[in-house]
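As agreed, record minuted below.
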Amino acid sequence: MTAETTQTGNWVEVTTTDKIPAGKVIHVAPAGTHMALANIAGKLFAVDARCPHKLGPLARGTVQHNEIVCPWHRFRFDVRTGQSAAPAATFSVRTYPVRTVDDRVQILLEHDIDN
């Protein structure tokens, strides 16, 4: 795995594109930060690994349109914004920038504000 440092953080390699086919979600943990990495129609998105409702494992969820669905209680989150897809819900998950370099998938981890 490789990393590239920028002013705002580090691009950290988490997997390769062949490990995450379209319509699937996998668990990744760059530098101990647990995330669900989703492939939606060939575009990759990373969000927090746990649903804020009851800490369900989002990486075991499913993708529908631009949403990741928690397997425990069906809470849905827009992978582009992290916002809950249910109009009355106030839950959200953090999103992380994702890029591919050749076939390597990288996620941007921000530097700690205190450092």
Observations:
- The mean pLDDT is 90.
